[in-house]
Design a protein that fits this description.
extended; RRP1; 462 residues; Ribosomal RNA processing protein 1 homolog A; mainly alpha
Length: 462
C-alpha cells in the first residue's frame, strides 16, 4: 500500500470495531450498518468476498472484546441482524459465507472462556439467515440456495471446518428452524431443508458428521413425532371449537334478544344474591387449614421451576414431517453402491423407525424400559464388585486389631484401663489374653527390637 493514501473504509471500520474502548466499537458498529445499507443500494460496486472477510474479522474481535454476558447477547443480536441491511439475496449469501469462513479460520484461537459467546453468535446468525428465507415466503429456490451454502461451508470436507463448528451447527439447526418457521412450514418444505443432510449422511466418511446427523436431525424427528401429532390434534380441536362457537352465537342472537333485555336486571340481582349466600355457606363449611406455629405456607420453588420448564417445552408449534417420504428418500440414498456399509447400517435403523411411525406405531415407546434395564444391570454389577471387595481376606494385623476391639468391648472400664497399661508396658499388639514368649514377641514386633538389644547386656551384668 502506498504511504500517504487513506485506508479503505472496510479496514478503517474493522480497526475501530476491534478497538479497546466500547464507545468506539459501538460507534463503528452503527457506522458499519449505515455503510452497508448505502453501498448495497447501488446497482454496481457491491461488496467483494475479500472486503466482507475484512469486515467480519473486525466484527469477530468486536465480540471478542466484550466481556459482560448481557451485553454479549445484545451485541450478538446486533451483529447477526446486519444481514438484513443488504438489499439483495446474493449480497446476503456473500455475508453469510464470509461469516462461516471467519469462524472456521479463527476457531482454533478461541479460548475456553470465550467459547460460549461465539456459540451464541453462530446460533443467532443461523436464526437470522433462516429469517431471510422466511421474508421471501419460504420459496423453494431460496431454501435450496441457503442449504447449499451452509452444507458447503460447514459440512463439506474441503472446507476443513473444525469438529466444534460442525457439531454445534448440527445440534442447533432443527431448534432454530422450529423457532423461525414451525408455524408456517409444510412437510414438503421441511423435507427440502433436511434433504442435504440425508445426502451427506449417506456418503460422508466422517464418523462425527454421520453420528451428529443421525442423532441431532433424523432421530430428533422421530422423538418429536408424538408432539407433532399432538400439535395437529390441537389445531383440529381449535378449528372445530371456533366453528361451534360461531354457530352457537348466531343461534343465541336470533332466539333471545328481547327477553334478555327485559328480564336481565331482575334475574342478575336474584342470581347475585343466591351466589353470594352460597359462597358464604361454602366458606363456613370448609375447615381452616392447620399450620404449625411460626410456619408460613409457601410454594415449592423446585415445583414452580419444573412447571415453568414444562410450560416452555409444551408451548409452541412443532415441525411437521412426512415420515414415509423421509424413509423412502433415505432408503434411496442408503441403498446406493457408493454408500459405505457403516452409513448404510446406521441409516437403515432410522428408516425402520420412520416406517413404523408412518404405520402408526411409535418405536421409541420401549426405549425408556431398555434404558432402565441397562441402568439396573449397571447398578447390579457395581454392587457385585463392591461385595467382592468387601469379601476379600484382610491382612493379619487388621484381623488382630478387629479381634482385640471385639474382645475389649465386652470388658469393664477398669479392666480396659489395666489391659491398656499392660500393653503399653509390654508393647503388645496382638489379641488380649494370649501371652507370648519374649523371643516370639520380638519377632512379631519389629519396632521393639532395638530396645531389647539394649536390655540384654543389662541382664548379663546383673
Amino acid at each position: 500500500m502506498v504511504p500517504g493514501l487513506p485506508l479503505p473504509p472496510e479496514i478503517q471500520l474493522a480497526q475501530r470495531l476491534a478497538g479497546n474502548e466500547q464507545v468506539t466499537r459501538d460507534r463503528a458498529l452503527r457506522k458499519l450498518r449505515k455503510y452497508i445499507m448505502a453501498r448495497s443500494q447501488r446497482a454496481t460496486g457491491g461488496f467483494t468476498p475479500v472486503e466482507l472477510l475484512k469486515i467480519w474479522k473486525g466484527l469477530f474481535y468486536c465480540l471478542w472484546m466484550q466481556d459482560k454476558p448481557l451485553q454479549q447477547e445484545e451485541l450478538g443480536r446486533t451483529i447477526s441482524q446486519l444481514i438484513h441491511a443488504f438489499q439483495t439475496t446474493e449480497a446476503q449469501h456473500l455475508f453469510l459465507r464470509a461469516f462461516w469462513q471467519t469462524m472456521i479460520r479463527e476457531w482454533v484461537g478461541i479460548d475456553r472462556l470465550r467459547l460460549d459467546k461465539f456459540y451464541l453468535l453462530m446460533r443467532l446468525v443461523l436464526r437470522e439467515s433462516l429469517t431471510t428465507v422466511k421474508t421471501h415466503g419460504w420459496e423453494e429456490r431460496q431454501i435450496e440456495q441457503l442449504m447449499e451454502l451452509l452444507t458447503t461451508e460447514v459440512l463439506n470436507p474441503d472446507s476443513q471446518a473444525p469438529n466444534g463448528v460442525k457439531s454445534h451447527f448440527l445440534e442447533i439447526f432443527l431448534e432454530e428452524l422450529t423457532k423461525v418457521g414451525a408455524a408456517e412450514l409444510t412437510a414438503d418444505q421441511n423435507l427440502q431443508f433436511i434433504d442435504h443432510f440425508c445426502q451427506i449422511a449417506a456418503h460422508t466418511k466422517d464418523s462425527l458428521v454421520l453420528h451428529k446427523i443421525t442423532r441431532c436431525i433424523l432421530e430428533t424427528i422421530v422423538e418429536q413425532a408424538p408432539l407433532a401429532i399432538e400439535d395437529i390434534m390441537n389445531e383440529l380441536d381449535t378449528q372445530s371449537g371456533k366453528s361451534e362457537a360461531s354457530d352457537g352465537g348466531e343461534s343465541e342472537v336470533s332466539d333471545g334478544g328481547e327477553s334478555e333485555a327485559s328480564d336481565g336486571g331482575e334475574s342478575e340481582a336474584l342470581d347475585g344474591g343466591e351466589e353470594s349466600s352460597e359462597d358464604e355457606q361454602d366458606l363456613q363449611d370448609t375447615p381452616p387449614k392447620s399450620l404449625h406455629a411460626g410456619s408460613v405456607q409457601r410454594a415449592d420453588p423446585e415445583a414452580d421451576k419444573e412447571q415453568v420448564l414444562d410450560d416452555e417445552d409444551s408451548t409452541g408449534p412443532v415441525l411437521q414431517f412426512d415420515y414415509e417420504a423421509i424413509a423412502n428418500r433415505l432408503f434411496k440414498l442408503a441403498s446406493g453402491e457408493s454408500t459405505p456399509s457403516q452409513n448404510r447400517k446406521r441409516l437403515y435403523k432410522v428408516i425402520q423407525k420412520l416406517r413404523d411411525l408412518a404405520g402408526g406405531t411409535f418405536p421409541d415407546d420401549d426405549v425408556p424400559e431398555k434404558a432402565y434395564k441397562k441402568l439396573l444391570e449397571g447398578r447390579r454389577e457395581r454392587k457385585k464388585k463392591r461385595k467382592k471387595r468387601l469379601s476379600t481376606p484382610q491382612p493379619q494385623n487388621e484381623k488382630g486389631e478387629s479381634e482385640t476391639e471385639a474382645s475389649s468391648s465386652d470388658l469393664s472400664p477398669g479392666m480396659k484401663r489395666k489391659r491398656s497399661r499392660r500393653n503399653e508396658k509390654t508393647g503388645q499388639r496382638g489379641p488380649p489374653g494370649k501371652r507370648r514368649k519374649p523371643g516370639a514377641r520380638a519377632k512379631g514386633a519389629g519396632v521393639q527390637q532395638p530396645a531389647r538389644k539394649k536390655k540384654r547386656p543389662l541382664q548379663s551384668e546383673k
